[in-house]
Structures are given as C-alpha cells and as structure tokens.
Design brief:
5-stranded parallel sheet; 10 helices; single chain; alpha/beta
Amino acid sequence: MIRVLLVDDQPLIRSGFRALLDLEDDIEVVAEAADGREGLALIKELLPDVVLIDIQMPVMDGIEATRRVAADPALAGVHVVVLTNYGMDEYVFDALRAGAAGFLVKDIVPEDFLHAVRVAARGDALLAPAITRKLIDRYVTQPPPVRAGSGLEGLTGREREAVALAAQGLSNDEIADRLVISPLTAKTHINRAMAKLHARDRAQLVVLAYESGLVTPRTS
C-alpha cells in the first residue's frame, strides 16, 4: 500500500486529488494539511511514502518544507513531489535543488498523476524524459553558477556519461541504447552515481549535472 500525504492550501485541490487516489486499491491517503508547517509535522508523525505538496502556501511554503524533509535522515524514505499551477516557473528548479523527487502541474491528466505517485513511491525517476526536457528547455539557457567540489571526480567515465545523458532527459533504456549497454547496466551506473554524489534521487542528479558544469547548453 502506497501511503500519500496531501499538502495544499486549497481544499478543492486536495479533495480532487484525494478522490482520484481513493479509487486506487494500492494507494491510501493518510492525511491532509493546509500549509507546510502542518504538513511537515504530519510527515514526521506518519512517515508517508509520498508527499504531494504545493509550492506556494501560507505559514511555510513547499520549498522550505521540502528542504527540511531532505535534511532529516529520519525522513529518507519520504519522497516529496511538488505541485504547481504554473508548470515551468522559477520555483520548480528551487524545489528540485531543495530535495524534491520531482514536480507535477496541477492540470495533469489523471492517468499520468497516478503513474507519477507510483513511480515516486518506488523511488524511481519521477522526472519522465518529456518533463526533464521541459526543465532543460526552461533553465539550461540560464543555468545556476557552477558549483565547485561537486564530487564528479569520483565518478567513473561510464558513470559520468550516464549522468550526462540522464540530465539531457534520456530514460535508462535510452541511455543503454546510446552507450550500447544493457538497461540494467545503465540503471546501475545511475544508481552508483547517485550514491557517490549523495543525490536523493534522479531529479537531484539532474540538478547536480548542471550545477557542476557536466552538462551545459552546448552539450544538451
């Protein structure tokens, strides 16, 4: 059973998502919260598998709540997915840098929404290739300053190649095709890179690839 916590200051949004989730046999909504502070308290109490949290809320916004979840080792099994009305806005990249597993726009179709919840619960890549490419299109022309000491020097050549391709929006299968390796090997390279770089998930791996300079507008 996938345990989900909904955090949004709009009751109508929460009830709409809950109605969808409650129809699924393998998903349970354990609680709802109207702001980040209330949500954070419930996260610590209930330890849900997935938290769907709005970016902009009163008292504490979704980015700060996400940052606090990511900083707490006791919450390592909690996967935070940020919700936005605006699609690719300036807050999305900040949310990913704060430790979010990915993001969803609130007008997402129900099938994609339910799939995203299940993917996030598994700890797999929530950023589907199409979403990753949108992220790249929005931010690659104005990347954040290159961050020194990113840890990329500890990656093998193949791991660096796999990370660079993941940051360009390729799935594990596509990475495997590009590098002429098996999908399992591609996934292994990605997982080892995440472990070495202390990235919580693939979303943070993409952020690190840009912040480190491994991927630039010229190579994407």
